[in-house]
Amino acid sequence: MPFRTALSGLNSSSAELRVIGNNVANASTTGFKESRAEFADIFATSNLGVTANAIGTGVRVSSVSQQFTQGNIEFTDNNLDLAINGQGFFQLNDNGVNVYTRSGRFGVDRDGFVVNSQQQQLNIFQADLNGNITGAMGALRLDRSDIAPAASSQIDLSANLDASLSPPPTALFDPTDATSYNNSTSLTVFDSLGTPHLATMYFVKTATPNQWETRLYMDGNAQGGANTIEFDSTGAIDTTNFPSTVTIGGINPGTGAATMSLDLDFSNATQYGSSFNVSNLSQDGYATGRLSGIDISDAGVVTSRFTNGQSRTLGQIAVATFNNSQGLRQLGDTSWAETFDSGAPLVGAPGAGAAGLIESGALEGSNVDLTEQLVSMITAQRNFQANAQVITTADTITQTIINIR
């Protein structure tokens, strides 16, 4: 009967319109992947199969397949907005069950876990205490506790001492008398409690050619006595008679902190016939630090930054790929679950194998092309009208036959 054939066409066209409508409705949904209605014809069969001159009995929706093409990446001001540039999915922990998404709109919950709007936690490869990425999987959690201070133990100096200078006119060294030394430079060091102290190094040219005396004062108090450094005829440090690193121990910071010991490294110092110049002055201590921000590289490595200039590696974002992405089961909220058809997830680092790279501070838009959808909508509408016309024509024929007398 043409009625049933046309009715199958109406149902299929209506299903296609629903698919198109869903695509259009989600044109602005982050991480959404458009679907496509696929159709197959229907033939009546017997035990012997379909005869050569059989007439079809209509159409059916054989599949609604998802199209996992790349959506446009739009940049935002939030470092926890993430997009995958390439294949793969973010792996999320939903109360112990893994789900997968392309939507990287993340935030932080009350316990410090990085979650999406459904409170599903972002899975990463965890890092050990030394910042090395391990193979252990777990949820990404931002530790908001203060980072402990570290006492300074070494000062590195890269400077040029003027070879043309003469010994200072005042022979007796006095840090308050600028005529008793040639040059000085200062920096901040830290004790074991993170308390800052001002460390000043003084340089005095001696009567011996190419030889200088160095002195260290901390908070205005002398630490040890004079130490000698020597240069060769080329202006480079000479360790034949005196070491290039001077160790000054027994420093009492006076704050209840542990006694300090500082290694003053002069190996990069020079003595050329130009003015005194400090090109680098650094130390290895730091004060207490609080979490100030998060950085995520394109390889997915998550690093926390602290107010004391230190950083800590928290882990690496895991990206899951599937042999058959179209076999995934849609869960809603732009997330999917693995199925037998999709195969097991291959979880790895971003950029490894088929997995795409991570874009931090960006979101992937939907891959819906509105122009294409509107054209498809017109086509589906025409198909619906044509099938409706078949029903009208069949009804007219039936009425004609009924009216035969």
Structural description of this entry:
The protein folds into three domains: about 1-70 and about 365-400, no CATH class; about 75-145 and about 295-365, no CATH class; about 155-285, Tick-borne Encephalitis virus Glycoprotein, domain 1 (Sandwich), CATH 2.60.98. Strand 20 (about 290-295) and strand 21 (about 300-305) form a beta hairpin. The chain is rod-shaped. The longest helix is centred in the C-terminal third of the chain and has 33 residues, at about 370-400. The chain has helices at about 1-25, 370-400; strands at about 35-40, 60-65, 75, 80-85, 90-95, 95-100, 105-110, 115, 120-125, 135-140, 155-160, 185-190, 195-205, 210-220, 220-230, 235-240, 245-250, 260-265, 275-285, 290-295, 300-305, 310-315, 320, 330, 335, 345-350, 355-360, 360-365. The mean pLDDT is about 90. It contains two helices and 28 strands. By secondary structure, it is mainly beta. The strands form seven sheets. Strands 5, 6, 9, 10, 20, 21, 22, 23, 24, 25 and 26 form an eleven-stranded antiparallel β-sheet that branches. A five-stranded antiparallel β-sheet has the order 12-13-14-15-16, with no helix packed on it. The protein has a four-stranded mixed β-sheet with strand order 17-18-11-19, with no helix packed on it. About 15% of the residues lie in helices and about 40% in strands.
